[in-house]
Design brief:
heterodimer; A: alpha/beta; FAD/NAD(P)-binding domain; 7-stranded mixed beta sheet; B: mainly beta; 5-stranded mixed beta sheet; 3-stranded mixed beta sheet; 1 helix; binds flavin-adenine dinucleotide; binds iron/sulfur cluster; binds FE2/S2 (inorganic) cluster
């Protein structure tokens, strides 16, 4: 039987981070992953991530995956792909299916970082070809370059449903509706807003009645539900679609831990069956650790920190580092993780209705119900100010762990402060030079540059644009409101692209000046 | 192939293997070597991979990562091949699976 100091199961952000950390401390480490490509969820994520610089914010998911791989390589970690772990025993024997072969390995320590699997829901017609998981849609479009469908209905308004809807639109699919049985949007408001402004209608308190079609999906009916999730007769709505995409949550893939005899618990706040572990990933079985989504559904940013924690703890467990050194490492990591776990979407706030921001500002109810902030709500947020000349308008209105906008502005126009979850504000007396870095670097595509009065009855708005084809200067079209509806005529006056913008293009449109604070997207006529 | 992404705003050109021919129920279809069989079928607009044994209900891609077994087909005579994680090669014979056979139910 082959022996390693540390065996890591899963090459996602948590597993790779754990392996890198342990290898740097001198452990002989192997990582097994069932996929053909390493990186876990990261390889399907093409959007810029939230967080701060230390959490690789504003870098696109698949790029973070590549960075981790390079680091793992450098640290001497062995990554074995197409390797499904099918067994884990208390004595840390790991059984791996490699191609057709079953191979046994022994680890002195084992870290389980298997991530999560998608949840399912059933409704009449749910087994028809054309009903797919959100992960499947991502795999098709982002890994294989194949359109998952042409007209898609998305079920689920969590971050996955929102992000995947946007990705579907980016590759040319039409998302006809975003539906959720819950009364409020589950994911970040900024993700919802960037989908809503392209014209996708949100149906909260709605769910699927039936998927239609004989051989494959040809349509779908949804209806409103009451507070006990019963259909309200007469509220049915029909859509012609060829694809129904399900994004109804993730559950930890914790079977291996159960198999190894780790004590488990059912914890809805963590997303389901999870191992009981201390805050650094030690399970009830000495030498078996967990990190990432398998120990509670969170984010890649927290998964990476948890991975580093587990890697360090494993190093100390096997005597590669001293207790003092471990404590020092963990103290720093604790602080970073704490920072991420603040704000409205913190694990401790799951399921709670939050009415005010940390700053005491009333949360936008329209954002939660419709996916966009209403015109009359927008000006109460500290990122939205009126000024003469070009200035940033920051439509980021919830306390989320994110701050690349602050780092982006070298002129000091944008501030979040020490607390990473505070709302971004426009700094009094600051001078914007219209460089566009904030617009391109904002992970939520929530920053616009506005010149409210050009002196000729028009205003100019610069917005982030990640679609093809890129409209050229002079292109005529319409300004769309935050709700995705046409509000005015608009013409493109500039389209900026640059390496520093990392594929987010900056589209400047000219609109009648009454629409300076209303138009937020552009559609070619 | 109408359903391929020509140019992606973030990913640019998505790297593909050599174009190859294979057959679906005897008809010639084009795909790219090394991509999952299911991706090639999807790009060609082919949705139904199999019919269930008891109720004869159609199934197609669902998870696309080899977990659900909805996408299994008869490939080069072998039934129950998960097409979403099996790479395409030139000349592959891919057939709709009826129950566990490539013969339609009325011929079984
Ligand atoms: C659409 C979407 C958008 C997201 N956006 C963001 C974002 O903006 N910011 C952010 O921070 N996070 C985001 N996330 C979340 C983030 O991707 C996950 O939280 C993170 O990937 C979890 O990391 P992990 O290492 O725990 O698990 P994963 O990334 O899921 O990796 C686990 C790996 O283990 C493998 N595995 C599982 N079981 C076995 C086995 N038995 N044998 C071998 N291998 C196995 C899996 O195949 C996988 O490769 C997003 C997620 C999704 C789905
Ligand atoms: S455009 Fe440039 S100067 Fe103006 S706020 Fe944004 S980053 Fe700062
Ligand atoms: S405005 Fe700042 S904090 Fe809000 S999403 Fe954009 S980068 Fe993050
Ligand atoms: S689609 Fe689920 S196994 Fe292939």
């Amino acid at each position: 039987m082959k022996r390693y100091d540390l065996i890591v199961v899963g090459a996602g952000p948590s597993g790779l981070s754990a392996a890198i950390e342990a290898a740097k401390k001198g452990l002989k480490v192997v990582v097994f992953d069932e996929n053909e490509k390493p990186g876990g969820q990261l390889f399907k994520q093409i959007h810029k991530f939230f967080g701060s610089k230390e959490h690789r914010a504003k870098v696109r998911g698949f790029v973070i995956g590549q960075q981790l791989l390079d680091e793992a390589d450098e640290a001497g970690v062995k990554v074995v792909l197409n390797a499904t772990v099918i067994g884990l025993y208390q004595d840390k024997e790991v059984v791996v299916k490699l191609g057709g072969e079953v191979v046994h390995y022994k680890g002195d320590a084992v870290i389980i970082a298997t991530g999560a699997a998608e949840n399912m829901v059933t409704f009449p017609g749910w087994t028809l070809p054309g009903v797919i998981g959100a992960g499947a849609a991502q795999t098709m479009m982002n890994l294989h370059g194949v359109l998952p469908g042409k007209r898609v209905l998305m079920l689920g308004s969590g971050n996955v449903g929102l992000v995947v809807s946007f990705q579907l639109e980016q590759c040319g699919c039409e998302v006809v509706a975003l539906v959720d049985a819950a009364p409020r949007v589950g994911g970040y408001g900024v993700h919802a807003a960037k989908v809503a402004r392209t014209g996708v209608p949100f149906y909260l308190s709605h769910t699927i009645v039936e998927a239609e079609g004989d051989e494959c999906v040809t349509g779908v009916t949804i209806a409103e539900v009451d507070s006990s999730f019963k259909f309200i007769p007469g509220t049915e709505k029909h859509f012609d679609v060829d694809t129904i995409c399900l994004a109804v949550g993730l559950s930890p893939m914790s079977q291996l831990l159960k198999m190894a005899g780790c004590k488990m618990e059912d914890n809805p706040k963590r997303g389901g069956q999870v191992p009981i572990s201390d805050s650094y990933g030690q399970t009830s079985v000495p030498g078996i650790f967990v990190a990432g989504d398998v120990s509670g559904i969170e984010e890649a940013s927290s998964a990476m920190i948890e991975g580093r924690m587990a890697g360090n703890v494993a190093a100390e467990y096997l005597g590669y580092i001293e207790k003092d050194a471990l404590k020092e490492e963990l103290d720093t990591l604790d602080k970073a993780l704490d920072g991420l776990r603040q704000g409205m979407f913190a694990p401790s706030n799951r399921g709670k209705l939050i009415e005010k921001t940390d700053e005491g500002i009333e949360v936008s109810q329209s954002l939660l119900k419709n996916g966009y902030i209403a015109d009359e709500e927008i000006e109460r947020f500290p990122g939205v100010v009126r000024k003469v000349g070009v200035h940033p308008v920051i439509e980021c209105t919830q306390n989320i762990p994110c701050n690349p906008c602050q780092d982006a502005c070298k002129k000091g126009c944008i501030s979040i402060g020490k607390n990473i979850t505070s709302l971004p504000i426009v700094v009094d007396g600051s001078e914007c030079i219209n460089c566009g870095m904030c617009v391109a670097n904002c992970s939520g595509q929530a920053i616009f540059l506005v010149d409210e009065d050009k002196g000729d009855g028009s205003a100019e708005i610069t917005l982030p644009y990640e679609f093809l084809p890129l409209p050229e200067e002079g292109t005529k079209g319409f300004g769309l409101g935050r709700d995705g509806k046409v509000v005015c005529e608009a013409v493109v006056t500039k389209c900026r692209s640059s390496k520093a913008f990392d594929k987010t293009h900056l589209l400047t449109i000219k609109v009648p000046k009454e629409y300076a604070m209303k138009a937020r997207f552009f559609k070619v006529s | 192939m109408a359903e391929r992404i020509k140019e992606h705003p973030i990913l640019g050109d998505i790297k593909k293997g050599e174009p190859v021919k294979f057959t679906f129920d005897g008809k010639e279809v084009m795909g790219y070597e090394g991509e999952p069989i299911a991706a090639a079928l999807k790009a060609a607009g082919l949705m139904v991979h199999r019919y269930t044994k008891k109720e004869h209900k159609p199934r197609g891609i669902f998870c696309a990562i080899g977990r659900c077994t909805d996408c299994v087909m008869v490939v080069d005579g072998v039934p129950n091949v998960r097409t979403c994680i099996t790479p395409l090669t030139a000349g592959m014979e891919v057939k709709t699976q009826y129950g566990v056979s490539d013969k339609p139910f009325e011929e079984q």
